[in-house]
C-alpha cells in the first residue's frame, strides 16, 4: 500500500511539472514552429514544436512568424493579431475545413501573411475569412471546395488584400470582396468555381494581372456599393464562364474598369465577354484594349442601361456565333477607336467613334 | 607503466584536441548552419554551426554557406564574396532587433548572393544594407517590418544589385521604406513585390540604371520616388503595376545637374494618391525651375488611371514625355497635363477619357515615323 | 520499476485524437512515404507505401500527401481526390509494359495531381482520363510513355487542366484529347515527343496559354475531326517551334463553325526537313466555316508555306502579325478559301512570294 502511494506521487509530480512548464512556455516568441510530431503543450519552439496553428499563434509575438517544419494537417485557426503563417516550399501545410471557416482573421490593424497553405473544404463555408484588419497577404496557397467562398474579405477603412501565385478552385465563390478597400491578384488561377471567380461589392479598387479564370458563373462580377469602384485587369484570360468574363452592375456609385491584353473565350449563357450594365444614376464603364473575344454565345461586349458605356481599342472579335450582336450597345453607347477587327458585321446600333488623343 | 601509458594517451588526446581546434580555424569552400549546430563547430556538414556569423568566418572567399534546416540564424556582417543559400523547403530566418541591421554587406569588390532568407524586423533598422561591394544578388527572399529600410544599396560605378522573386513589405510599422538605391551602379528587379511600406516603396537617387520587370508596388506611401539631382539616372519599368499607393504612384524629381531617362511599358499605374497630395497623381514628373536638369520619359502601352490627381503631370522646362498607346481614364484631375514649360507629346494613339479635370492640358502632338 | 501508465495513456489518447488509428476507416488526409507500409492506416505517423493503398483510405474529396522521395506505383482513381507531392519531393511512378500510370475513372470525380513524375518503362499512357468531371494536372512531369503522355477521352461535360507541367520525350503523342473534354493548358512544355505534341480530336474546345510546343517529331498541334458542334480554340503567348512536321495542322470540319485565335505567339521553323506542304498553319475543312485569326503573331522560317487556308470552308484573318522567311509562300488562300487582312501586317522574304490567293482588307470597326 505504501509502495503504491509512493509510486503514484511521482506521477502527480510529473503532471504538475508539465503544467508548470506549459505556463513558462506561454511567453511569446518572435518565431514559433509547428510540426507533424509537435505537441501543443510545448513552447512551440524549434526543439519542441507545437502540433496546431492555434497553439502556435498563441505563443507568437505580434508581427511574429509561425513556421511549418514538415508536411501534415495543422487545423483551422482564429487570428487576432499581426502574424505570418508560412510553410516553405516543399512542405505541405494543410487545413481541412468541415464547417465554418478555415482561417478567421478579426483584429483591427492586423497585418497577416499566409504562405504555402492548402485549405480543403469538406463541408466548410469559407477558406479564409478576413472579418477585420489592415492587410491580408495570401501567397502560394491553394483553397478549394469551400461552400461559400475560398477567400472572403471585408476591407472597409482602406484595408488591403493581396493574393499571389495561388489558386482557388471548385469553390462556390473564389474571392468575395466587400467594403471600401483595395485588393490585388497576381498569377492566380480560378478554376471551376461555381459562382464568380472574383466578386467585388462596394470596393475602392481592385487590380489584377496574369489571372486565369475558367468554368465560373462569371469571371469578375462588380456591383456598386458605398464608394466609386475601379477595376484593372491585364494580361489575363477568362474562359468557359456562363455569365461573362467581366460583368459590371452599376448603380448609385461609379464603376470603371480597364481590361488590357486579355483573352475572352468560350464564354456563354446570357453574356459573353464583357457586360456593362447600370441601373443608374451613376455611370458604369469598361475600357477594353488589345484583347481578344472569341467563342461567345451571346453579346460578346454589351451595355445595358442608359448610363452604361464601353470603349473599344484594338480588339479582335472572331469566331463568335451570331446569336445576338457581338457588339451590343443596348444601353449606353459603345465607343470605338475604329481600330478593331470584327469578323462578320454583328454590331448593333449606337456604336460611335471616339478619337484617340 | 600505467602512468606512461596514460601520459601517452593524454598526449594523443591533447594532440587531437589541438587538431580539432585547428580544424575549427581552417576555412572551407562550403560551410553549413543548422538548428542543432554550434558555433564552436567547424561548420561542416556533420558539425554545422548555429549562426551565419560563425559560418561566414569559416568560409573561403567566394564560398557558400548552406542552411540545412529551418531556424533563425542571426544577423551578420559580410566583408567578402560569399553565397548564403537556404534551399526551397528550408526557412532561414533573421529577426532584427532594435538598433541592428539584418545583413550588412561591406565587401570591397565582393560578390554576395543571398537566397531564400527571411528577414523580419522586430525593431531593427535595415534588412539588407549594401554599403560597399561589386555585386549583390537577393533571390527568393522576404523582408518585412523593418523600421528604416528593407534594402539599402549604395552603388559605386560598376556595382550591381539584383533583386529577384522577393517580397518587401512594411507590415504596418510606423516608419519604414522598401528599397533605397543610390549611386551610379545598376539595379535589376524582377518578380518583386514592394507592399505596405509606410514611407516610400522604392527610392532611386542620383545616378543608377534601374530596370523593373513584373514588379508590383502597392499600398506604400509614395510608390516609386526618383530623385535625380546629379548624375545620369535611367529607369525602365515593364509589365509592372503601381497600385493603391497613398501618395503619388511614380514621383520623379530632377534638379541640379541631374539627367533622367525613363521608359514605362505595358504597365498599370492605377488608383494612387488617395491622400490627395498636390501635385499628385499616377505619374508626377517635376524638374527644378533652375539648374540644368533634363528629363525624358516614354510611356508605351501603359495605363495611368483611377488616380487622385492627374494620370500624368509634368512640370517645368527641360522635361519631355512621350505617350503612345496608353489608356488614361478616370483620374480626378487631368488625364495628361504639361505645365510651366514641360512638354507632353502624344502620338494620338491613346484612349484618354473621363478625367475629372479635363483629358488634356497643354499637350502637343508628335508623329510616328 | 516505476510505471506511469497514466502518461502513456494520455499520450496515446492525444495521438488518437489527432490521427486515425483504425486501418479500415477513411480519413480526410492520408500519407505515403518511402518508409510506409500498405498495411498501415496511411496516417501521418503510419504512412502507406503505395498510391493505391492510400487512396483506398482517403475520404471522397480528401487529400493524399507524399512525404518523401520515392516511387509510389501506378494507380486507378475512382473518386474525387487530390494527390500532392510538395516541391522538393520526388513522387515517381514508373510505368511498365501494358500499364498506364494514373487512370482517372471517377464518375462525378474532381481529381488533382500535383508534383508527380511519371516515367514510361514500356507503359502506355502516363495519365489516362476516361471518366470524371475534372482532372487537373499541376507541376507534373510525364516522360517516356509509349503511346500518350496524357490521354483524355472522358465523355460528357468534362474539363482537363494542365498547368506548370512538362510532357516530354514520349514515344507517342504528348497530350491527346478527344471529344467533349474542354481543355486548358497553362505554362505547359510539350517537347520532344515522337508523335504530335498536342492532339485535339473530334472538336475539343481548348485554350493554350504561356506554353511551349517545341521539337516534336510530328506536328506541333494536330486538330482534326468531323463534328457538328461549334469549336472554340485559343493559343496565347505561346511558342510552336521546330516541330518536324506542321506547326498547326487543322483539317478540322465543324458544321456550326470553328475558330482558332492565335495571339502574341510565335510559330517558327516547323517542317524544315521536307520543305513540302505547310510549315506554319494548315487548314482544310469540308463543311461549315473554320478559321484562324492571327493577332500580333509571328509565323517565321517554316518550311514551305506559312499559313494555308485550303478550302472554301476556311478563312484566315491576319492582324498586326508577321509572316516572314517561310520557305515557299507566306500566306496562301486556295480552293475558295477566304483571306482577310487588317492591312497592318508585315510580310517579306518568303521564299517564293508573300501571298497567294484572294486576300481582302477587313475594314476596322
Number of strands of chain C: 39
Tell me the helix content of chain B.
under 10%
Low-pLDDT runs of chain C: 1-23
The largest chain-to-chain contact, stated as pair and per-chain residue counts, equals:
A-C, 58 and 59 residues
Notes on the structure:
- The complex is a heterotrimer of chains A (357), B (369) and C (365).
- With 357 residues, chain A is mainly beta.
- Helices cover 8% and strands 47% of the residues of chain A.
- In chain A, the strands form two sheets. Chain A has a 24-stranded parallel sheet that branches.
- The longest helix of chain A has 23 residues.
- The radius of gyration of chain A is 25 Å and the shape is elongated.
- Chain B is mostly beta strands and 369 residues long.
- Chain B has a domain of 149 residues.
- Chain B has two helices and 36 strands.
- In chain B, the strands form three sheets. Chain B has a 22-stranded parallel sheet that branches. Chain B has a twelve-stranded parallel sheet with strand order 4-7-10-13-15-17-20-23-26-29-32-35.
- In chain B, strand 1, helix 2 and strand 2 form a beta-alpha-beta unit.
- The N and C termini of chain B lie far apart (101 Å).
- About 4% of the residues of chain B have low confidence.
- Chain C has 365 residues and is mainly β.
- Chain C has a 15-stranded parallel sheet that branches. In chain C, strands 3-6-9-12-15-18-21-25-28-31-34-37 form a twelve-stranded parallel sheet, with no helix packed on it. In chain C, strands 4-7-10-13-16-19-22-26-29-32-35-38 form a twelve-stranded parallel sheet.
- In chain C, helix 2 links the parallel strand 1 and strand 2.
- Chains A and C meet through helix 1, strand 3 and strand 34 of A and helix 1, strand 1, strand 2, strand 14 and strand 17 of C.
Amino acid at each position: 500500500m505504501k509502495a503504491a502511494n509512493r509510486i503514484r506521487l511521482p506521477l502527480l509530480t510529473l503532471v504538475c511539472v508539465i503544467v508548470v512548464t506549459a505556463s513558462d512556455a506561454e511567453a511569446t516568441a518572435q518565431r514559433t514552429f509547428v510540426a507533424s510530431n509537435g505537441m501543443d503543450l510545448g513552447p512551440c519552439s524549434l526543439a519542441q514544436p507545437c502540433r496546431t496553428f492555434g497553439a502556435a499563434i498563441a505563443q507568437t509575438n505580434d508581427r511574429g512568424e509561425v513556421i511549418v517544419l514538415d508536411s501534415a494537417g495543422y487545423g483551422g485557426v482564429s487570428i487576432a493579431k499581426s502574424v505570418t503563417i508560412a510553410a516553405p516550399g516543399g512542405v505541405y501545410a494543410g487545413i481541412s475545413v468541415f464547417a465554418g471557416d478555415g482561417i478567421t482573421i478579426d483584429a483591427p490593424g492586423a497585418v497577416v501573411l499566409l504562405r504555402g497553405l492548402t485549405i480543403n473544404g469538406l463541408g466548410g463555408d469559407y477558406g479564409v475569412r478576413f472579418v477585420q484588419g489592415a492587410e491580408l497577404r495570401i501567397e502560394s496557397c491553394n483553397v478549394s471546395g469551400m461552400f461559400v467562398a475560398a477567400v472572403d474579405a471585408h476591407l472597409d477603412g482602406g484595408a488591403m488584400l493581396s493574393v499571389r501565385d495561388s489558386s482557388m478552385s471548385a469553390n462556390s465563390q473564389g474571392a468575395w470582396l466587400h467594403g471600401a478597400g483595395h485588393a490585388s491578384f497576381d498569377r492566380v488561377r480560378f478554376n471551376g468555381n461555381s459562382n464568380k471567380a472574383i466578386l467585388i461589392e462596394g470596393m475602392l479598387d481592385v487590380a489584377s494581372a496574369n489571372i486565369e479564370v475558367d468554368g465560373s458563373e462569371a469571371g469578375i462580377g462588380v456591383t456598386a456599393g458605398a464608394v466609386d469602384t475601379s477595376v484593372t485587369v491585364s494580361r489575363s484570360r477568362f474562359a468557359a464562364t456562363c455569365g461573362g468574363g467581366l460583368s459590371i452592375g452599376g448603380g448609385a456609385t461609379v464603376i470603371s474598369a480597364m481590361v488590357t491584353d486579355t483573352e475572352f473565350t468560350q464564354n456563354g449563357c446570357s453574356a459573353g465577354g464583357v457586360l456593362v450594365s447600370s441601373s443608374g444614376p451613376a455611370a458604369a464603364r469598361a475600357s477594353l484594349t488589345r484583347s481578344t473575344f472569341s467563342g461567345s454565345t451571346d453579346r460578346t461586349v454589351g451595355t445595358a442601361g442608359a448610363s452604361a458605356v464601353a470603349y473599344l481599342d484594338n480588339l479582335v472579335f472572331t469566331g463568335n456565333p451570331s446569336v445576338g450582336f457581338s457588339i451590343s450597345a443596348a444601353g449606353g453607347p459603345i465607343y470605338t477607336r475604329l481600330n478593331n477587327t470584327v469578323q462578320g458585321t454583328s454590331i448593333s446600333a449606337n456604336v460611335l467613334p471616339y478619337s484617340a488623343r | 607503466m600505467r602512468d606512461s601509458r596514460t601520459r601517452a594517451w593524454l598526449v594523443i588526446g591533447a594532440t587531437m584536441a589541438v587538431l580539432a581546434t585547428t580544424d575549427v580555424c581552417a576555412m572551407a569552400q562550403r560551410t553549413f548552419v543548422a538548428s542543432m549546430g554550434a558555433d564552436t563547430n567547424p561548420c561542416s556538414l556533420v558539425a554545422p554551426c548555429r549562426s551565419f556569423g560563425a559560418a561566414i568566418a569559416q568560409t573561403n572567399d567566394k564560398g557558400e554557406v548552406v542552411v540545412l534546416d529551418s531556424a533563425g540564424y542571426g544577423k551578420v556582417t559580410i566583408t567578402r564574396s560569399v553565397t548564403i543559400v537556404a534551399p526551397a523547403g528550408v526557412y532561414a530566418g533573421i529577426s532584427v532587433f532594435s538598433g541592428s541591421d539584418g545583413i550588412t554587406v561591406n565587401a570591397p569588390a565582393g560578390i554576395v548572393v543571398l537566397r531564400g532568407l527571411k528577414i523580419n524586423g522586430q525593431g531593427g533598422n535595415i534588412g539588407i544594407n549594401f554599403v560597399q561591394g561589386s555585386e549583390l544578388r537577393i533571390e527568393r527572399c522576404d523582408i518585412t517590418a523593418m523600421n528604416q529600410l528593407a534594402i539599402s544599396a549604395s552603388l559605386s560605378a560598376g556595382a550591381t544589385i539584383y533583386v529577384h522573386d522577393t517580397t518587401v513589405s512594411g507590415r504596418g510599422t510606423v516608419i519604414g521604406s522598401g528599397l533605397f538605391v543610390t549611386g551610379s551602379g545598376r539595379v535589376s528587379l524582377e518578380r518583386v513585390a514592394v507592399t505596405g511600406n509606410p514611407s516610400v516603396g522604392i527610392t532611386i537617387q542620383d545616378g543608377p540604371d534601374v530596370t523593373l520587370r513584373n514588379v508590383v508596388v502597392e499600398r506604400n506611401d509614395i510608390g516609386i520616388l526618383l530623385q535625380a539631382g546629379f548624375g545620369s539616372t535611367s529607369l525602365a519599368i515593364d509589365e509592372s503595376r503601381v497600385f493603391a499607393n497613398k501618395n503619388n504612384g511614380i514621383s520623379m524629381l530632377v534638379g541640379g545637374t541631374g539627367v533622367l531617362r525613363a521608359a514605362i511599358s505595358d504597365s498599370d499605374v492605377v488608383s494612387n494618391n488617395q491622400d490627395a497630395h498636390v501635385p499628385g497623381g499616377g505619374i508626377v514628373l517635376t524638374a527644378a525651375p533652375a539648374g540644368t536638369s533634363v528629363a525624358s520619359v516614354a510611356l508605351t502601352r501603359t495605363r495611368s488611371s483611377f488616380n487622385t490627381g492627374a494620370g500624368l503631370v509634368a512640370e517645368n522646362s527641360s522635361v519631355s514625355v512621350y505617350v503612345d498607346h496608353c489608356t488614361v481614364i478616370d483620374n480626378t484631375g487631368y488625364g495628361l497635363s504639361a505645365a510651366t514649360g514641360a512638354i507632353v507629346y502624344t502620338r494620338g494613339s491613346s484612349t484618354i477619357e473621363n478625367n475629372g479635370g479635363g483629358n488634356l492640358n497643354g499637350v502637343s502632338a508628335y508623329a510616328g515615323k | 520499476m516505476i510505471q506511469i501508465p497514466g502518461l502513456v495513456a494520455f499520450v496515446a489518447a492525444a495521438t488518437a485524437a489527432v490521427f486515425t488509428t483504425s486501418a479500415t476507416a477513411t480519413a480526410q488526409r492520408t500519407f505515403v512515404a518511402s518508409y510506409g507500409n500498405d498495411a498501415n492506416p496511411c496516417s501521418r505517423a503510419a504512412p502507406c507505401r503505395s498510391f493505391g493503398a492510400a487512396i483506398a483510405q482517403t475520404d471522397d474529396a480528401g487529400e493524399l500527401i507524399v512525404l518523401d522521395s520515392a516511387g509510389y506505383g501506378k494507380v486507378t482513381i475512382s473518386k474525387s481526390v487530390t494527390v500532392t507531392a510538395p516541391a522538393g519531393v520526388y513522387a515517381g511512378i514508373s510505368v511498365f509494359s501494358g500499364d498506364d500510370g494514373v487512370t482517372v475513372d471517377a464518375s462525378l470525380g474532381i481529381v488533382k495531381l500535383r508534383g508527380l513524375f511519371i516515367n514510361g518503362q514500356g507503359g502506355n499512357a502516363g495519365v489516362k482520363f476516361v471518366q470524371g468531371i475534372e482532372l487537373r494536372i499541376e507541376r507534373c512531369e510525364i516522360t517516356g510513355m509509349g503511346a500518350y503522355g496524357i490521354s483524355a477521352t472522358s465523355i460528357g461535360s468534362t474539363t482537363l487542366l494542365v498547368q506548370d507541367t512538362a510532357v516530354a520525350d514520349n514515344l507517342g503523342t504528348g497530350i491527346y484529347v478527344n471529344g467533349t473534354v474542354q481543355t486548358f493548358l497553362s505554362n505547359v512544355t510539350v517537347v520532344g515527343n515522337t508523335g504530335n505534341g498536342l492532339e485535339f480530336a473530334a472538336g475539343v474546345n481548348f485554350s493554350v496559354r504561356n506554353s511551349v510546343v517545341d521539337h516534336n517529331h510530328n506536328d506541333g498541334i494536330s486538330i482534326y475531326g468531323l463534328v457538328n458542334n461549334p469549336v472554340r480554340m485559343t493559343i496565347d503567348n505561346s511558342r510552336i517551334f521546330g516541330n518536324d512536321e506542321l506547326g498547326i495542322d487543322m483539317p478540322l470540319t465543324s458544321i456550326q463553325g470553328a475558330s482558332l485565335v492565335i495571339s502574341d505567339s510565335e510559330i517558327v521553323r516547323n517542317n524544315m526537313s521536307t520543305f513540302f506542304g505547310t510549315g506554319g498553319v494548315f487548314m482544310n475543312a469540308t463543311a461549315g466555316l473554320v478559321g484562324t485569326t492571327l493577332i500580333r503573331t509571328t509565323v517565321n522560317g517554316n518550311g514551305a508555306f506559312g499559313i494555308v487556308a485550303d478550302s472554301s470552308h476556311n478563312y484566315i484573318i491576319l492582324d498586326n502579325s508577321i509572316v516572314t522567311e517561310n520557305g515557299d509562300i507566306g500566306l496562301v488562300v486556295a480552293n475558295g478559301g477566304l483571306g482577310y487582312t487588317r492591312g497592318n501586317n508585315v510580310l517579306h522574304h518568303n521564299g517564293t512570294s508573300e501571298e497567294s490567293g484572294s486576300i481582302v482588307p477587313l475594314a476596322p470597326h
